[in-house]
Design brief:
Blueprint (H helix, E strand, L loop, with lengths): L4 H21 L1 H20 L1
């Protein structure tokens, strides 16, 4: 089996598509997790 450039392009296009779909449908969770991560990181840096 030979992997071509076309196969690699379609693989990354699929990964990107799933990322966009997941971000779109879970937008509230994404925002909540980003805020929590920022606050946790900020608090760790202050220690």
């Amino acid at each position: 089996m030979k992997i071509t450039k076309r196969d690699i392009k379609f693989f990354f296009l699929g990964v990107l598509s799933l990322f966009i779909i997941e971000t779109f449908f879970g937008w509230n969770d994404v925002i909540k997790d980003m805020k929590r991560g920022f606050i946790d990181g900020y608090n760790e840096a202050k220690k």
